[in-house]
Amino acid sequence: MNQVRALTATSPDLEPKLAVIQELAWQVFEPDIPDSQHHVSAPKSLQLQLDNWHQRLSADNAAILYIIGDPDPSASRTPNPPSAPILGFFFLNPRPLSESQTSLHIYLAAVHPSARGQGIFSMLLEETKMRAKAARFQILTVSTIPEKFQGMYGILSRAGSGWEVVQWEELPNGEGRKVVMKMVVE
């Protein structure tokens, strides 16, 4: 059975868990780098660098929610199942929206390819909503690049999902567009 767990800046097992979560992030966000190279090269993206993660985790209410469990081998869509039982994660970080309002922002979200279609994203989103309510956040926000992450954008833009488009932003170097979305937490 899958379980949602939380990792914060004060978690006793922070470093080993971050290493496993970073490995999953690399597989999803930098798939062109072979798995064997993840430990010997720095991530191309600032979003995947551990120094950046430590800084973000130091904020109040910041956390990485992750799901552990045994993936269903019959559901595997890739030849490389996860090396650890972390199937997916949401990196949550407060983000100012205005002088008077802050959202709980989903800074990074990833589900291992072999675990997709099993409700991992939905479980993480439900836990995120509960965490936001408990911390008195009224809004969740997320950004994604629909051209690169069609599955995530498809989930978020579904009718009845509760997410609405706030704005579209052009990415540098003609790399497409990013969409910023929000959800009111009720």
Task: Describe what this molecule looks like in 3D.
There is one protein chain. With 186 residues, the chain is of the alpha+beta class. 25% of the residues lie in helices and 29% in strands. Strands 1-2-3-4-5-7-6 form a 7-stranded mixed sheet, with helices on both faces. Strand 6 and strand 7 (177-184) form a beta hairpin. The longest helix is centred in the N-terminal third of the chain and has 16 residues, at 14-29. It is globular, with a radius of gyration of 16 Å.
- Calculate the terminal CA-CA distance, rounded to whole Å: 28 Å
Q: What is the CATH architecture descriptor?
A: 3-Layer(aba) Sandwich
Strand content: 25-35%
- Bin the helical content: 25-40%
Summed up, the helix count is 4
Q: What series of H and E elements makes up the topology?
A: EHHEEEHEHEE
What name does the CATH topology carry?
A: Aminopeptidase
How many strand units?
A: 7
| Name of the CATH class | Alpha Beta
Radius of gyration: 16 Å
Strand order within the widest beta sheet: 1-2-3-4-5-7-6
Dominant shape:
globular
Structural class: alpha+beta
* Nearest-integer average pLDDT: 87
Total number of domains = 1
- Ranges where pLDDT stays below 50 over 5 or more residues in a row are none
- The CATH superfamily is Gcn5-related N-acetyltransferase (GNAT)
For the report, how would you describe the main beta sheet?
7 strands, mixed
